């Protein structure tokens, strides 16, 4: 019997070996989940955040840069305070704060760094830098926040902030992680991909307590971060700053465009805020207070506010009439105030006179020529056909839809089609007498200040425009800007029709906007008044100058400032002079605008 | 030829070579376990465990030389005295020793400490061999069974006082030797049956299933055999007893100290508390499991190197091997252990005296138990028990006690030609 037992024991030993090796094979070779768990355990992915690109103005002056801020970090395990009094003096911290921060750090981790003093200024940093070597366990961690040398162009430049849940979800490339900073508005958002650069990744090994144990596989899998690209913006820093000064304390917009290129020279939304306030640790606090401010300083008026175009639209009506052949420069109508109200001026007037005097009855009659071209014998049908054909022409001027400026949240305004009136009155139940207020830019039309500035550029260019944009070049290469900003858009009106229009706009200043006249700089402009059912009308002015070789096209909206000839025309005139002459020769006009008492 | 030359020639070299292979592989793994890439220290550096282990290895070689040079009769003659001496030392350890984590395992002066529990193994083995050597000693008889068990249980009781459950459990491995020496098979069938039922009772949430299964099993057995009243009664009693046992296990477990309860629960559900009680096993499995087929390469392990696995240079040394050398490394080391055990059985069976054969089987039992339980615990097949991997784990007491245990047998084996056959 006992002879079999050694064999049984040998079999038992081999069985044990088999069981152990089988189980080992299962967890080592068959199941790779342990490998992933091991990586999660010991390999820490450290993201190397790139330097965000800078933003310059069109003349190479810095608009946005990265300001380093310094946090003094503490590793409790290594920290030795030495002479406490000297320490407190050196780091300008109270004993209570030191104890509190130290305890908080200890509670967080014995070996990992925690902040002791946050956001040390550059000067304090310089002062304490040399002493740091005396204190083991203390080191400086550098972060950077966006900074603005001049507190201007807040809306155009935008701001950055922590990415929100929805944006994270929409990020199909999975580039962003919780806590990343992204551009949330303006240029910062629109050119996020260029400005952000590319994050780098370092894999480092950590032990069970999270202490750094050097790079994983000598950095074989690490990637270096790539700094963001710098953006040269089309903004003229001086003009922008001057415009914001003029608009200080008012509500409204100023948009100045270089007509030949569509480059936005200045874009002012008033009231505005100091962009430096929406950075760093104060971001959320400032954001909340700005967001709840009743004057809506965060609202980007030039692209988001919509108004009826008013009298300025008469210029567009004239051009459409000329192009359609229903109007000629000689077409004359009487100023028949029974049709629509008008102010006193000689009557009857031809087209030139109508623009110069902004004659309402003229356009009431001219618009009927445009709409009712007797394509159909049914007057309702004829109006419908006419309105839709007219609308097509209007859209060509960049109205009734987003222009596609390189800023988020642009509004498109609206130009009504026949469907709009069908919905409102029923099909075949409306005719010219229903829609005539469109003739003078009132009624169911809405435009943004940006669209109006673009309109001024079309007038200046005699029939074309480039989509207004804020970007001049990326990293100094103008070929990197979006293709659409390099395409000429035709407004659908032959250039020879503009000659007379430009002359009339030049003359119009002497009729309705004498304040805008600048000696030696010929301005062509048109006043407007956007009717405001809630209060005083909005003062509007569009212009370009110099008339013979336009360098600047501008639209100015000053809300609740009444007639366009005062607030808006004066502001536009000062902006034009500032841009072309680089100096202001009419200090009394500047004073008038700054004082801001336009209603009298 | 001189007597010494004859003995050297008769030394079983395969076993000696396997011994040194395991000791050296173990030493390299201890270095890997304590290796820190940022502060590169030589494997010989005495400030780290691998350097100290080298000193232990040197001392072990000295011990081997002394044993091989000694007279083979010495151990047989001294066996009872050694046994009594260690009983006294074990008795005194709780009073003289240094308490660590509630356990008093070691005695000694300053940093030089030994664990009597480790050394008492070979003394107990010698004593059992001496005690059971008599030709009249028959393990199939109740009286002898009780006597042999008594010799075994005395050191166990004293070790449990320290308390060191792991080491105490090792002594029960001598049951393998008892089996070889003729302890009736029915004990083992009953034992394995109870272990199986216990494991099932612990593993299966609802005891009712198990009770129904036992009942069904008993009914089938009754119907298969003769249907005599005595038989039906006997099976019914066994069935009822087993069911009562199943229901009592939960009660018994609940009376165990909490850390032992946890170790048992974690075995059946490792994800129960991966950061708490399950930490050791979870991390150990991650380390070994991440090794893959060929491992991460020597000194390239991240789990063992960065302290994720506790006790990695002592009881969990197998993790370092598994992580850095993968399944193939595990295969080599497990094969070495099996080869060693196989060779030891061959050696034990060729002994001319019952004394040396019993001692040989004690050596086999102890090494097999350590090897089996230590590796099983690192891969989650057995609850965490603090016992080292023979020849591998860091520590002087462990290395020396296994060296003494093994080489006394090698010495006896090499001298077998001079022994008179006393096999009964």
Detailed description of the structure:
The complex is a heterodimer of chains A (600) and B (424). With 600 residues, chain A is α+β, with helices and mostly antiparallel strands. The termini of chain A are far apart. In chain A, helix 13 crosses helix 15 and helix 21 (567-581) crosses helix 22 (587-595). In chain A, strands 2, 3, 4, 5, 10 and 14 form a six-stranded mixed sheet that branches. In chain A, strands 12-11-18-17-16 form a five-stranded antiparallel sheet, with helices on both faces. The mean pLDDT of chain A is 88. Chain A has 22 helices and 18 strands. With 424 residues, chain B is mainly alpha-helical. Chain B has helices at 3-10, 13-34, 49-69, 73-96, 116-132, 142-160, 165-171, 175-180, 185-203, 207-224, 229-255, 258-268, 279-289, 317-349, 354-378, 396-414; strands at 98-100, 103-109, 112-114. In chain B, strands 1-2-3 form a three-stranded antiparallel sheet. In chain B, helix 13 (279-289) packs across helix 14. The model of chain B has no long low-confidence stretch (mean pLDDT 85).
Topology at a glance:
The complex is a heterodimer of chains A (600) and B (424).
Chain A: H1 4-30, H2 33-42, E1 43-48, E2 55-56, E3 62-74, H3 84-91, H4 95-108, E4 114-120, H5 122-129, E5 138-147, H6 154-157, E6 160-162, H7 165-170, E7 181-183, H8 186-190, H9 192-196, E8 200-206, E9 212-215, E10 231-233, H10 237-246, E11 252-258, E12 263-270, H11 283-292, H12 301-304, H13 313-324, H14 351-357, H15 360-371, H16 379-396, H17 418-425, H18 432-435, H19 449-461, E13 464-466, E14 471-474, E15 488-490, H20 496-512, E16 524-530, E17 538-545, E18 552-558, H21 567-581, H22 587-595
Parallel strand pairs in A: 2-10
Antiparallel strand pairs in A: 1-8, 2-3, 3-4, 3-5, 6-7, 8-9, 10-14, 11-12, 11-18, 13-15, 16-17, 17-18
Helix pairs in contact in A: 10-21, 13-15, 14-20, 21-22
Chain B: H1 3-10, H2 13-34, H3 49-69, H4 73-96, E1 98-100, E2 103-109, E3 112-114, H5 116-132, H6 142-160, H7 165-171, H8 175-180, H9 185-203, H10 207-224, H11 229-255, H12 258-268, H13 279-289, H14 317-349, H15 354-378, H16 396-414
Helix pairs in contact in B: 2-3, 2-14, 3-16, 4-5, 4-6, 5-6, 5-15, 5-16, 6-7, 9-11, 10-11, 13-14, 14-15, 15-16
